[in-house]
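User: Here's a protein and a ligand (ISE). What would the complex look like?
Assistant: Let me lay out the input and then the predicted complex.
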Amino acid sequence: MSTDNLRVAVVGAGQMGADHVRRITAKISNADVVAIVEPDQGRAAAAAALAPGAIAAASFDEALDATAIDAVIIATPGFLHEPILVTALERGLMVLCEKPLTTLAEDSLRIVELEQQHASRPVIQVGFMRRFDAGYKELLALRESGANGALLALHHAHRNPTTPPNYGEDMLIKDSVIHEIDIIPFLTGEPIMSVEVKKPRSNSLAPAGLPEPQFVLFTTESGVLAIVEISVNVQFGYQVTTEAVFESGVAYIGRETSQTVVSAGLSAQPITPSYKERFSAAYDEEVQRWVDAARGGGIDGPSAWDGYTASVVAEVAVRAQQTGALEPVEYAVTKPTFYDEVFAVAAGDRA
Ligand code: ISE
């Protein structure tokens, strides 16, 4: 596999899947999209048109029967991930699975166990792309340098312009805050140990029955408090920022993603319309590094273990949405050594 291009099947040709097809075809080296798996024929044809030579198949099994595949990008809705992950493990394929790994923590744990049975080292990478964003890497480097003392607290703002159809209250956590649930342990180096959810006055622009914004309060093992504002109908664009409070300093990321133009009495900056533009460079780096690692039989990013711990915290956070209480987080198992040393992103690495 190491001298030839990685033959990738993309399963799911919705927004994210189509974006990955475009990315691999136009920007990524040493990989080809050879199959697009999508039951919706219109979407399948549109995605196949982006990747010359790729076949379109209605199911993953059909694609596996039709052509040689080394690796799979799973970009279906989360509740469909598990059977594709199982097939990929059984067939010895390399995997990049969009978040969440699975929607239930118990299913994620089963995947973690199955991966250890089928592979000699981790083969599933989870698509938590924020870890490849320059700002988050700089923040991690700052925390690890100790230049401003210990990290005490994090303020995260996570704002989406509007909600897609069928976006329910639990999706504030499972679909959106899941990114902070991953990035908080990444930045702090510690697991999340408790969650509480506060619901202020609701935005009248939100669909009926969706109480948002919400504030999700996470506490890590040493007591770092991470407050996440999730707002999903802000209308003005897509915004993800973080402010880190250290003992003797404060750092901000994500406020400026391009130049500021001062003119006609205004100092203005465009706001990215969606996560695809905001995290475009992070996605590019994530996918190129995954391809490079997959060609050697490994991963270079968050593992199935990270996917499992995120699922555990997300489940507790959904409970906290309902109870309004401070909910403790308990992990059923400790991290197997199998998952040590799979991800090289740390302070300064390839920044
Ligand atoms: C979407 O699925 C994403 O993954 C985005 O990063 C997140 O900001 C958004 O809220 C989700 O719906």
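Summary: The domain at 6-129+282-348 is CATH 3.40.50.720 (Rossmann fold).
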